[in-house]
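To: structure desk
From: M.T.
Subject: fold request, one chain
Message: Could you run this one when you get a chance? Sequence is below, nothing fancy, just the single chain.
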Amino acid sequence: MNSLVSEIGLILILATFLAFIARRLKQPMILGYIIAGMIIGPLGLKLVIDMDTITTLSELGIAFLLFIVGLEIDVRKLRNLGLIALVAGIGQVVFTFIITYFVVNLLGFSQIHTLYIAIALTLSSTIIIVKLLSDKNEMNALHGRIALGILLVQDFVAVIALAALAKSSITWTTVGVNVALGIAFFAIAIIIGMFILKYVFNPIASSPELLFLGAVSTCFLFAMISEKIGLSIAIGGFLAGICLAPLPYNLEIVSRIKSLRDFFATIFFVTLGMQIVIPYGVNIWFPVFLFSIFVIIGNPLIVLILMSVMGFKARPSFLTGISIAQISEFSLILMALGVSTGMIPQVIMSIIALVAVITFTVSSYMITYDEQLYRLFQKIIKPFEKLAIRKLHFEHMPGEIKYHIILCGCNRVGRGVIESAQKLKKNVLVIDFNPEVVHKLAKEKLHALYGDVGDVEIVERIIKHKPELIISTVPDAADNYLLLQQVKKKHKKVKMILTANNIHEALDLYEEGADYVLLPHQLGRDHIALILREKTKNITKLDQERARHIERIKKRKIEGMN
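Reply: Done. Structure tokens follow.
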């Protein structure tokens, strides 16, 4: 017992230290966990002996990890792009798998090993993509939504693959039975989540402890059922999350489960690092390099071609492709399953784990600097638009109208601009990178265009309208500089109000010629100052302002805005 406590303590201490280093270097913390495993495992200092117990704990980590992934999946986010995301997702999975299978087979791997590797290289990381796109506030952008759609398709494929390969022997019969079981289990989970679980959880939702225990119990229940019918507990955990996702308090469940998830998931990724071995006399670096290059370059290229054929512009196609340039946590889980069933040797597990380390690192930088990469390769990427077999229109601009105001970004401030312009009888054209916003504005009979001020084509369209005023509520400094420079170069008389994140950006924009710069963090302060100055002289005015504010909030609630 003391040995186990010491080994778990050692795992957590080293994992914490290396995760801190990874974070300081702006890398995914998963890398720190895997490297910790490599250090204390057979490849390094060989400090952990009780691998059976550690492996059991890591399996729980898989279940909780996928439980959270399932909980955070909201299919409703794909309302307007469901079909497009579905086609892009299926196309990416099919073409990536076929190409990868062919390439891996040429390297001399056996058929079953090729199958495992091809599936592993086809999937992308939900955790990394969602985290980085959320940090950049791009989950609602067109490329963010399509990337989410591709991830949903991949997650479904991963569940089916885990179900199909759950046995230690693979035949057409076992694969068919397992796939059927997986699909049936998936369908039952969705039905239970939509129609039954709310009656179970509503009575206990008021108690945080019972809500937590109910969620954990659901996870274990599905894991037990999954194991009983011959599937992996990972599938059970994922489907339990899918089952609970429709509940109105799923975010509270996520917040309470995350700490438990993080503990077990850390052990899982450290265990993966322990399983990396480099056999003497075997050259694994060539396949590691080749597979990494394919994932980093090949996957984005496949998505770029698919989306170009469907009629998307170069920018969203490129940004979507960039976002999936890594393998998935599902890939590592699949490999761990293959090793445990004896279907693949430890060396293949090591190859995929090293590919994960490389692609996690490189893709993190690619997503972080995707705009700079797009501008760097823009001339090479633009010709892909000629592959389009149809045109996609995310705009509502009926007739030839003189637009007095161009509004870039319809957030809270943007809504205020629209309301004020309507009172002044000024025509407004809204440009937003969220297609749902464009769709909603079109329903309100407002003129809107999907686009991004960082796209030169969109800027050129803005200039052609010769507006009196351009307002950008987009806080991206590079996009605002581009917009300001391009517009002022051709129409110096146009007044421009832009947005900055801090005083340094604000001063830079003023130096470039901006007429006024908004600092969002100062708006609240200025509004409070105005209320104190104007309303407290006569206390009844504050009551009137309160009533007007409540009416505005209610109106926004009806419109479905935050």
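Reply (cont.): The two ends are 52 Å apart (CA to CA). Let me know if you need anything else for the meeting.
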